[in-house]
Design a protein that fits this description.
332 residues; alpha/beta; Aspartate Aminotransferase, domain 1; Aspartate Aminotransferase, domain 2; 12 helices; 13 strands
Length: 332
């Protein structure tokens, strides 16, 4: 199993700090996510049904009906490599590590590529996988560039897989309007922007033949009834979405400024997180954890990803910790 953000119980046990006393900034999940109302009892008592309105709500939200619901984008990440013959797959690096691992496990030859090397690698690849905006670096790619790469790969029946887990705060940059083009596979999730990580709801936007094969691979009832119900309501809540799209980028800028004031200059990020390259990543992570603040640490390249505090008291707590660490104390 790869390391991910979260793991709060393990951190509580390791540092001897009660679970309730932690500030978790490790996941990039909206800390003020969509407020889920009580689930109607009938939803718990019936098998999930595909005509319950979820797909219609998703089509209206994403602007395309070329989609299929999955149990979080992770389900698609694990299934997609099984739907192609073994071949050469380029994966943006650093990025969400589950992509490369899933393709390797399925027997594909995986090449890790930095952002500058993607275009030149296309001619030797059957599939290119990237996250846009990228996690953890925040690097993004224009629709014009991605459409060109999609076309070049599709000429050889190749795929361009674009993971848009963090795209909801900037929908104009999404490739969703191009869903259905041959060779274009787009992954979306309600876990980050909507904050519904526990519901495990995602969508794959792709051409019809690929969607059918994916559905056959995953089988029936990929989503629970309560998850489908909650996702339907969240996707239809335009007023909440509009507020979040105003508030989250402002919070992301606030976080970048706060980190910069205390010697941790963000080199990139998105609305929901900031990326700080530093050779002392492990020391900073440990020093913050000893103060009950959990951040995501990366080793290759060395850096920290900070998610957003959710309340003013959480912002003040992070600021106090950073001030302590900058007041003559080394991170370790």
């Amino acid at each position: 199993m790869l390391e991910h953000g979260g793991g709060l119980r393990a951190a509580a046990a390791r540092y001897g700090i009660p679970l309730s006393d932690w500030l978790d900034l490790s996941t990039g999940i909206n800390p003020n996510g969509w407020p889920v109302p009580p689930v109607p009892p009938r939803v718990w008592l019936r098998l999930p049904e595909s005509d319950d309105g979820l797909e219609r709500a998703a089509a209206a939200y994403y602007g395309t009906a070329d989609l299929v619901a999955v149990a979080g984008s992770q389900a698609a990440i694990q299934a997609l490599p099984q739907l192609r013959p073994r071949g050469r797959v380029g994966v943006l690096n650093p990025s969400y590590a589950e992509h490369a691992q899933a393709w390797r496990r399925a027997g594909h030859q995986v090449e890790l590529l930095d952002a500058g090397g993607l275009a030149t690698a296309l001619e030797r690849l059957e599939t290119l996988v990237l996250v846009n905006p990228n996690n953890p670096t925040g690097v993004d790619f224009s629709a014009e560039v991605l459409l060109d790469w999609r076309q070049r790969l599709a000429r050889r029946d190749g795929w361009l897989v674009v993971d848009e887990a963090f795209a909801d705060a900037m929908p104009a940059a999404s490739m969703a309007v191009h869903a259905g083009l041959p060779g274009l596979v787009i992954l979306r999730s309600l876990g980050k922007f909507f904050g519904l990580a526990g519901a495990r709801v995602g969508f794959v936007l792709a051409e019809a033949a690929l969607r059918a094969r994916l559905q056959d691979c995953l089988g029936p009832w990929t989503l629970t009834g309560p998850s489908r119900w909650a996702a339907t309501q969240a996707l239809a809540d335009r007023s909440w979405q509009a507020r979040a799209r105003l508030e989250l980028p402002e919070a992301g800028q606030r976080l970048a400024a706060l980190l910069d004031c205390h010697g941790l200059t963000a080199a990139g990020g998105a609305a929901l997180f900031q990326w700080v390259p530093t050779n002392d990543a492990e020391s900073w992570r440990d020093a913050l954890a000893r103060r009950g603040i959990l951040v995501r640490c990366f080793s290759e390249p060395s850096g920290l990803r900070f998610g957003l505090p959710g309340t003013e008291s959480a912002w003040r707590r992070l600021e106090r910790a950073l001030m302590e660490l900058c007041a003559g104390r080394s991170p370790g």
